[in-house]
């Protein structure tokens, strides 16, 4: 009989399963899809960065990137993140820089001229730029597959095509029913990404996580491999990054209501390109490849930060990363295993991310949301 049932085989669930098994616990992973990384993980743009404003987010990402850096399957490439900072965010970003510097993570302030040596752009309205040389991109599928393989090697069982239908607490156990069977364990850990709010409702628990669709538009091959960093114009939220001979482009649409909407929103391509061309004129004339473009889901919470920790007796959650799950999964797996196996997280203070913070009127003020 398992001691922990992990629901969800995305990158967060896989990391948790691996570290729980490593801690000596018997683990069962239940995944509704036919294979792993089919939700937000598989549709991620794959960026990882330390450039956040809150210490906890900085450290979650920093320690995760250090782990990915030594993982062959991650295919980690430190292409860097370049943030272009508008005048109205000068003080916010200067404070974030001070926090990053105090924590010892590698981020540099650049003049606009120094930044233009990395990427051509219009300077109007900008104050300065920041660059994180440890930031970059990786392969979320590769990381997830590695964690699941290692979890299995340590005795974990992974079952696909097993959506959680119902779950209830009875006699000190969580009893879970799926289309294929019934299982029980003392601990139930939800790593269900954008579907966490719905899963919570099946359990009769309010978990304030909702899906928000995000687009990743891809250019046609350029005929060469561009070497730009992942570049974000903080004035508009427009970003781009190289992928082989293509550029990937995106921008969040704050006006789109939450929900599991399917398909690429081609109507949002115009506003996305408008914001991009205003700052990066060199993008003009690039052809878009509709077949190479895709959509995915952010798993949003009221303060755009994750829920990490116990919800009620034996029920735990690691979800709601609001676009940062791939970046932080490695460290989250370690911390959740520490919490469940040893009673508390030893490597990092998780109190800012407790699920109860909203009922207590506490919101984490992360200013580095893109």
From TrEMBL:
Keywords: Oxidoreductase. InterPro entries: FAD-dep_OxRdtase, FAD/NAD-bd_sf. Residues 4-338 form the FAD dependent oxidoreductase domain. SUPFAM superfamilies: FAD/NAD(P)-binding domain. The keyword Iron does not apply. PANTHER family: FAD-DEPENDENT OXIDOREDUCTASE DOMAIN-CONTAINING PROTEIN 1, SARCOSINE DEHYDROGENASE-RELATED. This is FAD dependent oxidoreductase domain-containing protein. It comes from Thermus brockianus. The lineage of its organism: Bacteria, Thermotogati, Deinococcota, Deinococci, Thermales.
